[in-house]
Amino acid sequence: MRLTVLGCRQGMPADGQASSGYLVSTGRTKLLLDCGPGAATALSALTHPSELDAIIISHLHADHCYDLLTLGKTLLSGRLRDPRLLPTLRGAAQVEWPPVPLYVPKGGRARLDILASAFPVPSFPMLDRSFDVAFVVHEYEPADAFTVGDCAISMHGLNHSLPNCGTRIESPEGSFAFTGDTAYTPDLVPLAQNVDLLLSEATLEEPDVTSHGHLCAAEAGDVAAAADVRQLVLTHFVTADETWLKARKADAERAFRGPVHLAAPGRTFDVRPSGGVR
To answer: Looking at domain 2-270, does it have CATH number 3.30.1120.10?
Structure first.
């Protein structure tokens, strides 16, 4: 199993870095976790969205799902190709890619339909059908579990201003957990218990005293230690400043004695008992 970071920024893209997006792949399965602004572009350098076995969205804040519309239009675009208009372009023939399974929180389908309707293309109405043609949309609830390829996936309700679920993935190649966005909650420990790699948001310097719901890096380290994970990757950063990021890494290392890494676009991590960073 391997984790590839597409984007790691909190909120909107900045400093050339995309918002949240992560590709988890095994020898048989490709999963996209979250799809914030810029994630679709980063994904396009690695694979076509038709090659994804599923997309899982942790919650419906725009910085975690906005580029779903981009992926949907990409998946629909093959149906609109006209070789007569592009006679010298290789690969200009029409193609219908099969719909990609898309897992979103309960109530998400209606919100996504609103997003699609905001940018109509009257001359090509097929491009307005991302969420009924390009994807097969499944709405999940906390404690739901499902299988994609060789991956057993479970959703864990956490603590954010919109319903957010952490995602736990287990396969013969390794085990992985992702927090999405959340304040500290004891429910983080069963999400991450004994996984080979925990990908945890680390937005703040200090514990969140608001109702919005984010972790600081020290809390991510506490969770990693309590859950006995093998390695921890911090993400969802407010800056690309190296000094600030190194300080957050040190915060996590005070509680967690295993390897602590900082997510960065294009960085990959092996998710196995002897895994590491590339």
So the answer is: no
Per-domain residue ranges of the chain: 2-270
Give the C-alpha separation, 270 to 32, whole Å.
16
Six-digit token string for 168: 């736990």
Record the pTM. Answer: 0.95
Cα–Cα separations (whole angstroms), residue 238 to 17, 22, 158, 164: 11, 17, 21, 20
Q: What is the reported pLDDT for 91?
A: 75
Structure tokens at 209: 């005293």
| pLDDT tens-digit readout, 67-106 | 999 999 999 998 888 788 888 888 777 889 999 999 999 9
Handedness of CA 123, 124, 125, 131 (dihedral sign): negative
Q: How far apart are CA 202 and CA 184, in angstroms?
A: 11
Q: By CB neighbour count within 10 A (0-12 exposed, 13-18 middle, 19+ buried), where does 235 fall? A: buried
Q: Taking 70 as the threshold, does the pLDDT of residue 226 lie above it?
A: yes
**Spatial distance between the Cα atoms of 254 and 213, rounded to a whole number of angstroms:** 22
Q: Say whether pLDDT at 211 is over 70.
A: yes
- The answer to whether residues 80 and 126 touch, using CB atoms and an 8 Å cutoff, is yes
**140, 106 Cβ separation under 8 angstroms:** yes
Phi, psi dihedral angles at 270 (to 5 degrees): -75, 130
